[in-house]
Amino acid sequence: MTDDTDDWAERLQANREEKDRFFADHRQSPIPPAERDGFDGLDYYPPDPDYRVTATVTVHDEPEPVELDTTEGRTVRYLRIVTFEFELDGESHELHGYRQENDDEGIFVPIRDKTTGQTTYENGRYMELEPDRELTDGDEITLDFNLAYSPFCAFSETFDCPLPPEENWLETTVEAGERAP
């Protein structure tokens, strides 16, 4: 492994340890208080640099509204602001990034793949991107599936979470990030 890969793996491990501490101890943890004493950390796939892919960005200058279903049967409105094109396992794929109206922070990327309901949470996982600049057509950005995580509703029914829309269902196996709780 290169030094860059070693540094990345160390940062990823530190991120996971910090998240486990939050889930175990923080008052805003999605783990029900009665279950926190028995919580010994989330289950993750081993870090795999093959699931850090370079994606080409297409920006939607006039973002289309998209209604995402939620785990509670409601819908929430997001705007499809970008499309990411990338290769994974030798095949070309697309994912869309969303943002809620009046939100200028981050890009929400909900996904399903062939691990969904098998080894990962049955309703899909999320990734969040926080680019250090405004994206433009043709930009390249790293999508790191090792950061894919289960939404809070995977841990408690008190949360209502958006479901990945069919356009973000990947026809491949993504054995990276969090496994099912």
TrEMBL record:
Domain of life: Archaea
Compositional bias ranges of the Basic and acidic residues kind: 8-39
InterPro entries from the UniProt entry: DUF1684 (IPR012467)
Family matches, as Pfam families: DUF1684
Region annotation Disordered: where it falls in the sequence: 1-44
Full protein name: DUF1684 domain-containing protein
Source organism of the structure: Halorientalis regularis
